[in-house]
Design goal:
heterodimer; A: 7 helices; B: alpha+beta; six-stranded antiparallel barrel
Amino acid sequence: MNKQRLSLWWFIGTLAFALVSMLVPLPGVLEPFKPYWPALILLYWSLESEDRVNLGLAFMVGLGADLLNGVVLGEQALRLCALVFIALRFRSRLRFFPMWQQTLAVLALLLNDRILVLIVRVLAGASLPPASWWIAPFVGAALWPFLFLLLDDLRARLRIQ
Amino acid sequence: MARTRDESSPLFAGNAAGTLRLIVYLALAVVLMVLDHRNGWLWHLRYGASAVVEPVYRLAGLPAEGIRTMSVAFADRQRLTEQNQRLREDLLLANAKLNRMAAVAEQNQRLKELLDTQHSLELNVQLARVIGVDLGAYRYRLTLNMGARDGVKPGQPVIDAHGVMGQVKEVLPTTSVVMLITDPAHAIPVVIERSGLRTVAYGSRDGDQLALPNIPLATDVRAGDKLLTSGLGGRFPPGFPVGEIVSVAPAATGMFQVALARPAADIDRSEDVLLLHDQAEPDGPPALVKPMGPPRELMSNGTAAPATTSTVRSATTPASGEVPR
């Protein structure tokens, strides 16, 4: 019982951490390199613990993220829903990919996410972002193996699901 | 446990129910976006949820705050001494200027009393700190640690020691968001200090610059010209530095000149900013100068300016853009 509660708090804690680190500013030079943390953490959980992550959760996390830093309400909800849907659909395959292949898949998902943002923003009448805006998905994909191993290791250490 | 999980996610999944759910959620998100785009709900919601949102902003601002504190704590003595020295010199210079200004300001005050105008040179300001929070992919917003409870209102101009930074866009109970003058959606009425030409400076689409897209072709604008707020529109008080022109080129259409300007304020380095209170001039354009023959500027220029230019320039007053009334 206690273990279950701990694992639930761990789950919620990582998501909250993702939202806060999305808000933390980096120095100006590093700014375009900031990965989209909520997407990475949600991806991890949708691969590792499918019964917790569903589209409803992705939608709620997205709404929370929009509330914190969104341009329009529902933008990140849409992005995270699309991301989690694809991840859940190909979950069984993604999980057994070797790490480099998984990283490439994550890169594709993050690029797809950026394209979605671009469509939404252009439709909303915003200007095109600079070229450096496309670096973030690559940084996110490059961080993926480390993030995955770190979270897996912590989970094993805490002995939680 | 494992079995049921496997059933819900077969190796090559493709169930219609999941897709349907996705479509429903996506539709919901799109509806929300459209409604929010039209009505701006996000900020009402943010205001309502401020008890949750603001602590998160403060939390997210902690690393930046920590780095700032650390950089002071671990800065070596020499750098601090140098900085101190520089600040002393600046203060000395500023005080000297101020002393010289005091007499002029007093004289100005007396003349204004004679002319019976309300405008005063005193500043009614409030000091605010910038919270280091990253709001969205476009970096044209700042978060301040003052909000509705401290008397901040949307539309208040925000300045730093060097010039205008932007205006308060949205207010939460104890924080507020500033829209910077470099935001592509922002426009500020300016006057070119040297020639007195009035125009509008927009935030440029590529980064930390200002764009002045519609300067008449025949006017004299050079790189290095200073931009001041003109006070038109009633939002920004007149006479504050806005930026300095870095380049001028004819527009692609050939109808206007386009200038790019660097903002005077330290837009991405300021830690403390000033919020201006009750400085705005009354709304509406200033009284027109009565047209009596060709304006003086045209004669000195010696060029035949188009009609639009002459109307703009005939309404122009020297430097600060104040019109005696």
